[in-house]
Input
Amino acid sequence: MKLTYYGQSCVELEFDGKKLLFDPFITGNPLAKDVDVNSLKPDYILVSHGHGDHVADLVTVAKNSGAKVICIAEIAGWLGKQGVDNVHGMNIGGSFKFDFGKVKMVNAVHSATLPDGSNGGNPAGFVVYTGSQNVYFAGDTALTYDMKLLADENLDWAILPIGDNYTMGVDDAIKSTGFFNCKNVVGVHYDSFPVIKIDKEEAAQKFQSAGINLKLPEVGQTIEI
Output
């Protein structure tokens, strides 16, 4: 599986000929100034919640690519008003089988209003089951005991926010890995704004000391996971 990082929480997973893009926020992120948003052609877009730093480029990418958007029901309704009809609405605790595998929507502890003030429903995360790997995309979340419910999901990788202030920081992200039994982490949601800037060297040392394999790809970089 290939993972490409586009800054903030925007990552793309590519496997078995399919591309899954999460939380497209590129044009408003100065760290992603070299990424051409119009070049993104995912098959699916998964949206964790409605904040601008997760949906700013959602409508553009959806219309350019024709991708099916997977999101909570309230965002699905909002997208219809934006002229995006290829949408699969879900809610927390539900799962659905797509042509690439299964997706389960799981709880996240955050807020979720859309940029225009519309109701964004509840924030969420996703577990993606591909048949060969199980990947947890936590979305924006605090550390929560609900993560313990994922302990038996045989997670291969977890994509976790580590920037603090708005979400978990490094220490709570490390603690969360013990809740859901995963030793491989891709850190996201950091450095885009001054209040979520982190010391990447210190973060790497803390994860290493905890026995956790942390990946912090550069914006635009593709890694194998």
Q: What stands out?
A: The domain at 2-224 is CATH 3.60.15.10 (Metallo-beta-lactamase; Chain A). The two ends are 6 Å apart (CA to CA). The chain has a mean pLDDT of 98. The helical segments are 52-55, 58-65, 73-81, 170-180, 200-209.
